[in-house]
Amino acid sequence: MTRARLVITVLLLAACAGRGSVYSGPTGPEAVAALYERIGMHGETPAAVRRSLGEPQRVERDTVANRHGYGTDTTITMLHRGWRHDFLALGASGTVILTGRETIDGAVGFPAGLRIGLTTASQLRARLGAPHDTDTVADTTVLSWRHPAMEADSYVELAVVRDTVRMVRWVPYVD
Questions:
Q1: How sure is the predictor about 79, in pLDDT bands with cuts at 50, 70 and 90?
Q2: DSSP secondary structure string for all residues of 89-110
Q3: Which alpha helices (H) appear in 40-160, and where do they start and end?
Q4: Strand partners, 87
Q5: What is the pLDDT of residues 15-35, one digit of tens each?
Q6: Are the CB atoms for 61 and 73 separated by under 8 Å?
Q7: Whole-angstrom Cα distance, residue 71 to residue 82?
């Protein structure tokens, strides 16, 4: 019985060791830039996303009025395991613009040791620095960071529910 307790104690200590360990990777603006690079790794076009992730599990399309009055556009949502990519196909020119991407998949790894379902709001602040913006909607706090070197008004949002990151979303600047 004593040996079994020792084995259980060692296993419990090993399981808890990672939770209390100190993060030693990039922090602040360097970590934010790395986060942008990671979330952007699938490319900017539907073809690039297909090359990176394969055929989507589902594609949703919807026609919407062009906000500048140039006819109609088409929203395209590509759903892959772990990822959602949103595009806008401009009816007047045929140009396709990436309007956002997100994941809620805990298996997707991010720089700065960020993990969906494991990272807390205080860890986000410690690793990424102070957020550019904070918004609270119901039980969700959305923390936003801008890329340190990009002038455009794009940002990465991390949704925190009950002090744990539940979603990572990139919202690029689209005019």
A1: very high
A2: E-TTT--EEEEEEEE--TTSB-
A3: 46-53, 121-128
A4: 76, 98
A5: 444 444 466 777 899 999 999
A6: no
A7: 33
